[in-house]
TrEMBL record:
Keywords: Chromosome, DNA damage, DNA repair, DNA replication, DNA-binding, Nucleus, Transcription, Transcription regulation. This is FACT complex subunit SSRP1. It comes from the Eukaryota. GO terms for cellular component: FACT complex; nucleolus. Gene3D superfamilies: 2.30.29.150, High mobility group box domain, Pleckstrin-homology domain (PH domain)/Phosphotyrosine-binding domain (PTB), Structure-specific recognition protein (SSRP1).
Length: 706
C-alpha cells in the first residue's frame, strides 16, 4: 500500500465557505493547503479520534474529529475512493472509516448535541445538520428561544446569517434550559467579548488602511482598534500573516497585518491592516499582568517591562499573541540600495517589496502574491515613456497584476531576483530547469527570519556591504533591452539614408543631401568590421596546450563510472552532488594523492606552454617577413598600373574625342534635379578635366596641320 494519498480540488468548509485546495494523507497525518490563502492545516496522526464518510452536496465528504474537539470537513471525493481511504485509515491511523448518512426526512423537531466545537441537530440517531460553533458571531436569548448569528461569507453569493432554536421549558428546578443552551454555544463560539482589562494600549497610531489614527488595545484573544468614527475588533484567529517592511526613505517602517476574513465597514472590505511608524519614536511599555503570568503565557518572548522603538514593541507583542512569524524583505536590493521598488499599481503610486516567498505591494490597494500561485511574470515596455518599464504578474487562477512606471535602472536587479527564484518569464519562454522548486504543501510563511530591530540593522548593513562590493554595475547589459533611444537612432539613420537615395531634394538642400549618405556609410562600413574583430578575438588556437584539471576533477573522471554503477539511473546533477559529498568525506591522505597528480599535470602544462610560446614566436617572425614582401610587390604593381593608366588616357583623348563627348553628354530625360543640386563639387572636377583635354587636343591638331 502507498505511504501517501493525494487529492486535488478538495473543498474544506471553513466559516460557511468552501475553500478549494490540495489534500495529502501520509503516515504522519493529514495536510490541507488552501489554494486561495496558502494557509496550511496540519493534523497529526496521533490527534485523530474519528473519521466519518458520508454523502454531501459536492459528492462525498470526509469528516475528521480530533481528540481536542476540533472538527475538519473535506468535500469533493468520488464514491469509488471510499475503499482506498478506508484501507489507508486502517493501515496507518488504526481507525475505522465509518459511513453515516444524513437524515433527509425534513423534520424540524429533534435533539441538539454538543460535541467539541460542533453543534449537531439529530433526529433519532441520524444527524440532520451540523453547525461549527466557530462560525457563530453572536448568540442572544429570548423567553424560550436562542438565536445564533453567523459570520458573513464574502465569497458566497448567498450566506446563512441566522438560525433560531425553540427550547421547550422543563420541570427541573434551578436550571434554565435556554441559558444552558446559550452557555454551551458561547463557550466554543467566535464571539468577541471585551471583558477585563487590556494587556496593553498603544495610543494614536497612524493607520493607512483603514485610514486614520487609532488607539490599539491588545486583549488576550483579539485586537481592538478604537478611532474617532469607527471601531474594529479583530480576533487573532483571523490574522493570516505579519509583515515588517522598511520604507524607501529609511526613516519609516510599515507594519502590515494580513486578515482572512477581512474586517468590514459598510460595503468596504479591508484584507490588510497597515500601520506606519517613524523609526525615531520610542516607547516604554508595561504589560497589565504580573511577572508570573507573563512568563507562563509568553514563555520568555515578552517581559512585563519593555522599552525600545515603537514599531519594534508593536511587532513583538503581535508576534507573541498571534504566534505567527514576521515576514521581512529578503536579500533583494534595488538600484538605489533600498529593499523595495517604486512603482504604480492601478491609479496610485506605492512600493513593491520582493520577499523570499512572494511579492507585497503597499499601500493602495495592498496586494500580496505568493510565488507558488504565480503562473509567469512579464517585463514590458512602458506605455508613456521609454525611461520606465512595466512588471506584469499572472497567477494560475488567471488574475493579472501590472506594476507600472518602474525606473529602467531597476530592471537588472529585478530580473536577477526573478531568475534566482526560478519564476517563469514570459518574454524568454519556458526553459528546462526553471520549474519552481516549492513544496506544494509547504506553508508560505516557513523559513522566515524574525524581525527584531538589532537583527534588522545588522543584516541591512551586511547586505549593503555585500551588494556594493559584489554587484556594482550589474544589470547594465540587460538594461540595454529597455533602451529604445538606441533603437530609435538606428531607425532614424536607416530612414534618412533611404530618403536621400530615393526622394528628390530641392536646390537649397544640398548640405542635407551630402550628410545623409555619410550616415549610411557609417552603418554599413563601421559595423561589419567590428563583428570580424570580435570573431577573431573569440577564436582559439587548437594547437595550444589544454589547461590542467584540478585534483577534484581528476578524481571525478576516474570514479564517475563507479558512482553510476553504484547508483543506477542517477541524473547528471545528482551525480555531481553525490560526488561532492564523497569528496568532502574523503580523508586527507587520499586527497593528497590526487593533489600530487594535479601538481604533476600543472608542471607538464607549464612546460608545454613554454615550448608552444617559443614556436609561436618563430612562426610570427616568418609571417611578418612574408607580409613585408607582399607589401613591396603590391607597391611595385600599383606603380606600373598608374604609368599604364596615364599613357592610355593620353592616347584615348587624342584618338576619340567624340566618344568622350558622347559619354559625358546626357539628354534631358536622364538629368535629375538631385544630381544638379547635390553634385556641385563633381561638376567642378569634371569641368577642370574638360578644360585640360580641349587644350591638349588643340595642340595635337595644330601639330597635325603643320
Amino acid at each position: 500500500m502507498a505511504d501517501t494519498l493525494e487529492f486535488n480540488e478538495i473543498y474544506q468548509e471553513v466559516k460557511g465557505s468552501m475553500n478549494d485546495g490540495r489534500l495529502r494523507l501520509s503516515r504522519q497525518g493529514v495536510i490541507f493547503k488552501n489554494s486561495k490563502t496558502g494557509k496550511v492545516d496540519n493534523i497529526q496522526a496521533s490527534e485523530l479520534a474519528e473519521g466519518v464518510w458520508r454523502r454531501v452536496a459536492l459528492g462525498h465528504g470526509l469528516k475528521l474529529l480530533t481528540k481536542n474537539g476540533h472538527v475538519y470537513k473535506y468535500d469533493g471525493f468520488r464514491e469509488s475512493e471510499f475503499d482506498k481511504l478506508s484501507d489507508f485509515f486502517k493501515a496507518h491511523y488504526r481507525l475505522e472509516l465509518a459511513e453515516k448518512d444524513l437524515c433527509v426526512k425534513g423534520w424540524n423537531w429533534g435533539t441538539v448535541r454538543f460535541g467539541g466545537q460542533l453543534l449537531s441537530f439529530d433526529i433519532g440517531e441520524q444527524p440532520v445538520f451540523e453547525i461549527p460553533l466557530s462560525n457563530v458571531s453572536q448568540c442572544t436569548t429570548g423567553k424560550n428561544e436562542v438565536t445564533l448569528e453567523f459570520h458573513q461569507n464574502d465569497d458566497a453569493e448567498v450566506s446563512l446569517m441566522e438560525v433560531r432554536f425553540y427550547v421547550p421549558p422543563t420541570q427541573e428546578d434551578g436550571v434554565d434550559p435556554v441559558e444552558a443552551f446559550a452557555q454551551n454555544v458561547l463557550s466554543k463560539a467566535d464571539v468577541i467579548q471585551a471583558t477585563g482589562d487590556a494587556i496593553c494600549i498603544f495610543r494614536e497610531l497612524q493607520c493607512l488602511t483603514p485610514r486614520g489614527r487609532y488607539d490599539i488595545r491588545i486583549y488576550p484573544t483579539f485586537l481592538h482598534l478604537h478611532g474617532k468614527t469607527f471601531d474594529y475588533k479583530i480576533p487573532y484567529t483571523t490574522v493570516l500573516r505579519l509583515f515588517l517592511l522598511p520604507h524607501k526613505d529609511q526613516r519609516q517602517m510599515f507594519f502590515v497585518i494580513s486578515l482572512d476574513p477581512p474586517i468590514k465597514q459598510g460595503q468596504t472590505r479591508y484584507h490588510f491592516l497597515i500601520l506606519l511608524f517613524s523609526k525615531d519614536e520610542d516607547i516604554s511599555l508595561t504589560l497589565n499582568m504580573n511577572e508570573e503570568e507573563v512568563e507562563k503565557r509568553f514563555e520568555g518572548r515578552l517581559t512585563k517591562n519593555m522599552s525600545g522603538s515603537l514599531y519594534e514593541m508593536v511587532s513583538r507583542v503581535m508576534k507573541a499573541l498571534v504566534n505567527r512569524k514576521i515576514t521581512v524583505p529578503g536579500n533583494f536590493q534595488g538600484h538605489s540600495g533600498a529593499q523595495c521598488i517604486t512603482c504604480s499599481y492601478k491609479a496610485s503610486s506605492g512600493l513593491l517589496y520582493p520577499l523570499e516567498r512572494g511579492f507585497i505591494y503597499v499601500h493602495k490597494p495592498p496586494v500580496h502574491i505568493r510565488f507558488d500561485e504565480i503562473s509567469f511574470v512579464n517585463f514590458a515596455r512602458g506605455t508613456t515613456t521609454t525611461r520606465s518599464f512595466d512588471f506584469e504578474i499572472e497567477t494560475k487562477q488567471g488574475t493579472q497584476y501590472t506594476f507600472s512606471s518602474i525606473e529602467r535602472e531597476e530592471y537588472g536587479k529585478l530580473f536577477d531576483f526573478v531568475n534566482a527564484k526560478k519564476l517563469n518569464i514570459k518574454n524568454r519562454g519556458l526553459k528546462e530547469g526553471m520549474k519552481q522548486s516549492y513544496d506544494e504543501y509547504a506553508d508560505s510563511d516557513e523559513d522566515q527570519h524574525d524581525a527584531y530591530l538589532e537583527r534588522m540593522k545588522e543584516e541591512g548593513k551586511i547586505r549593503e556591504e555585500n551588494a556594493n562590493d559584489s554587484s556594482d554595475g550589474s544589470g547594465e547589459e540587460t538594461d540595454e533591452s529597455f533602451n529604445p533611444g538606441e533603437e530609435d537612432d538606428d531607425v532614424a539613420e536607416e530612414f534618412d539614408s533611404n530618403a536621400s537615395a530615393s526622394s528628390s531634394s530641392g536646390d537649397g538642400d544640398s548640405d542635407r543631401g551630402e550628410k545623409k549618405p555619410a550616415k549610411k556609410a557609417k552603418i554599413v562600413k563601421d559595423r561589419k568590421p567590428r563583428k570580424k574583430q570580435v570573431e577573431s578575438k573569440k577564436g582559439k588556437d587548437p594547437n595550444a596546450p589544454k589547461r590542467p584539471m584540478s585534483a577534484y576533477m581528476l578524481w571525478l573522471n576516474a570514479n564517475r563510472e563507479k558512482i553510476k554503477s553504484d547508483h543506477p539511473g542517477i541524473s547528471i546533477t545528482d551525480l555531481s552532488k553525490k560526488a561532492g559529498e564523497l569528496w568532502k568525506a574523503m580523508s586527507k591522505e587520499k586527497k593528497e594523492e590526487w593533489d600530487r597528480k594535479a601538481e604533476d599535470a600543472r608542471r607538464d602544462y607549464e612546460k608545454a606552454m613554454k615550448e608552444y610560446s617559443v614556436g609561436n614566436k618563430s612562426e610570427s617572425s616568418k609571417m611578418e617577413r612574408s607580409k613585408k614582401k607582399k607589401k613591396k610587390q603590391e607597391k611595385q604593381m600599383k606603380g606600373k598600373v598608374e604609368k599604364k593608366g596615364a599613357s592610355s588616357k593620353s592616347s584615348s583623348s587624342t584618338k576619340s574625342p567624340a566618344k568622350n563627348m558622347s559619354e559625358s553628354f546626357k539628354s534631358k530625360e536622364f538629368v535629375s534635379s538631385d544630381e544638379s543640386s547635390s553634385g556641385e563639387s563633381k561638376k567642378e572636377d569634371s569641368e577642370d578635366e574638360r578644360g585640360a583635354s580641349p587644350a591638349q587636343s588643340s595642340e595635337d591638331s595644330a601639330s597635325g596641320s603643320d
